[in-house]
Amino acid sequence: MRDSTLKYLLVAPAVLVVFATAIWPLIESLRLSFTVGRLNRPDSLNQYLGWENFTWAFTQEPAFWNSVWVTAIYTVLTVGLTTVLALGLALLLAPGGKFRSGVQTLLILPFAMSPALIGVSFRFMFNPEFGLFDAFFGVMIPPLADVSWLSDPVLAFAVCVMADVWGWIPFLTLVLIGGLASVPQDTIEAAQVDGASGWRVFRDVTLPQLAPVLAVVIILKSIFSLKTFDQIFMLTNGGPGTATQTLSHYIYFNGMKYGQIGYAASVAWLMVIPMIFLTYAYAKYVFRKE
Amino acid sequence: MSVAPMPDPEEFGRNPRQGLSGRQKKQIVRSVQVILILIATFIMLVPIAWIFLAAFKNHLDVYTLKIFFKPTLENFSLVFQEPYTLGEKLVNSTIVAFFTVLFAIPIATMAAYSFSRFRLVGETAMLVTILATQFVPAVVIILPFFVMFRDVGLLDTRLGLILVNLAIVMPFAIWMIKGFIDGIPLDTEEAAMVDGSSRAQVIRNIVLPMAAPGLLTAGIFCFIIAWNEFLFALILTNKDAVTLPIGLALFKAEEGDLWNLLSAAGIIIMVPMFVLALLIRKYFVQGMTMGAVR
Amino acid sequence: MAEVILKNLTKRWGDFIGVDDQSLSIADREFLVLLGPSGCGKTTTMRMIAGLEEPTSGEIWIGDRKVNDDLPKDRDVAMVFQNYGLYPHMTIFDNIAYPLKVRGTPKSEIAPRVEKAAAQVELSQFLDRKPKALSGGQRQRVALARAIVRTPKVFLMDEPLSNLDAKLRVTMRAELKHLSRELKITTVYVTHDQIEAMTLADRVAVMKNGVIQQLGTPDEIYNDPANLFVAGFIGSPAMNLINGSIQNGHFVTTGGTRLVPVEAADRASVVLGVRADDMRVSEAGEGDIDVRIYAFENTGEATLLTVQWGKQRVIAKGDRHLRKDQDDVVSISLNHDHLYLFDPDSGNRIAG
Fold it and tell me: ipTM of the assembly?
């Protein structure tokens, strides 16, 4: 068989799978977002409403805006904190040697924990009676000793952020360590000989050359933060009330618990919009010419 | 050899600068760094360690902060009995993850080879789309799947789960394997074709053996993803096809969660993944970023 | 005053010894070349002077100051790296200005000094470009400009010419020589290219396996090699080294041919060194010994004859107009004033 035919045949199954499992649902989701879409009334899935679901979300649903707000702050906080902490840890671990590589290997472990498991684990540790972290913070910051973390909106939110940052630091650190390694040693030594102190070398020489990798890291983490569901579900289930209800959780709740699939689909598609921008930015880095 | 006479250090006196020398400063910095690394490592490992401890505590100790206690294995046997029957869930998880990988890897490899070696019309568009599906929130995809599965009777089946897991896993698989194949030099293939092999033979006899470590790595990576997958399993299963991560939600009793059992279940979920992750640690970064960071 | 003095300097990594207890004294304004093959310790030595590598033991003095504990930035040295080490995200102007900026030079002073350095390396029109827009030779000159923009105590250069193509290397060598004369700053220059060493150095330290084999002027190294290694390393083509013995005051090859009278005691085994250009080629029968040509090469500026001498092969340089062919027989005469004798076991020079 000729190469020219073979190459398309080789790609076909994969394209088919992607189409069936990802593209089709996306399109179908879009269609559903224009319908009444109640799970318990099958014919409602073909009853068209025009833009009503969308306008309802924007104008009549404070819970929608709440989840937008929650998701936005959550994303900003987790991306910012994780990036800064991961950069710090990467700088500490980059120089190499047996001790540091050993630690790098250990870093894989938290990452192999699924977000759901992390959620459970943190819920355990912040339990007001026997939680390890609850006790720890109670000792460190006395006013917090009698507080029930997961019952307070702000504190519960803080716990969610902490769990997320904890779970993602290992991965981001490993990526940044790779990035640091790709900064040519020459440029750093030249700066040292030129007279720059450690901090100036970092600011003037290392950081600018690390910028592309940092951008990738920030974009990727932003995407993951926006999508977050598993962890929130197992940690707080959106609570207390809706204090930690991210968009994903809001969609799940409305779609599956309340059975309003049409509405849920419309919110889901609203979520896709920022994703498009982020994906475009990310793709530029993947396809960059060397 | 002509070498000038050495100057006598006494003549020039001690270093005139006050304060710490450059080398001493370096040593202090180094010590501080080690302390910080130790603190960070401790923080990263404590939650894991704590769950490990909890899994071996009996149902009284687990509600305490004890570090020294009498360990017990009964949690591990309890979770496999009624009503939790973790054993079934374990089987489900294994089957779903295994078959997901079984289907995904060959399909991904074929496509990866083609993308790597050939120029196709619309190649960039296809690759970008494959990349983009990874960034779509699962909630967007799940709703139509639920409706469709309900209609065709795929709800609460392992087959259904395998199908949706394919959706998640394919982009990673394609990108990882493509990365590996890109790294295999063309020379060997071209030499074989000049010697008379057909393209298909080349793929079978040369590329596959050389890419085998890469395929294995991608397979393990996808296995981990499918094993830990949560949202789809949550929505699409009920009784029969429940996987391990969802099984965690079962450990509620009237008084609250049964943390000792939960921890034991957690370990059963975690430990295989630790082992697998350590196996492929070299390729982690490459895999997760799908080629944006090399 | 900017002498550089190394005292019993050693660098060891585990079992591997990079620099082995070496002492060296470099005078103020001297251009010293560290010459040797890869792995001989020359770059390690220089990096220790810069402060990029910590010595295992020994002392390093720059001027009147022991600098062992000083960070590179406090040693007041400037360095040109083999791969230039330019800052890719800064313009050429900022690259050259960086050493000044980082040491707190007032802004008003920076611009004129940068422009002067750029003019000295003929890069004035590239100041607002970035490194990736420049060719290899241009980048190298930027690295040079960045080094000369200050007036450091010492210049350190790590094989700066080795990444340039052959023709460019020759022109840059001349420019370096010219610049170094103008600037008059103590310089330590590392290279594996013996022509660079010969043309640029005031003195050369030939190194092998972490030990300085010989320290001397280019003239001394060329005409008065201290041992087999130095003799074989310097000169192109390499010096011919012939095995034999001394009997009755004459050098006799292992094949038994009696060659030349030498002023040394009789000994059982010895190595005779003679350079290709100290051998005269003439027609068969006219010289010291008749030999068969193994290969004839015409380089344009001379001819090189590889001749079979019993069991050994030897290279002689002939006039550029000479034309001979493989398997022809010619006669070789040795210049008796330029013969070197070496002990085969220790490699040291005996006499000659």
Answer: 0.81
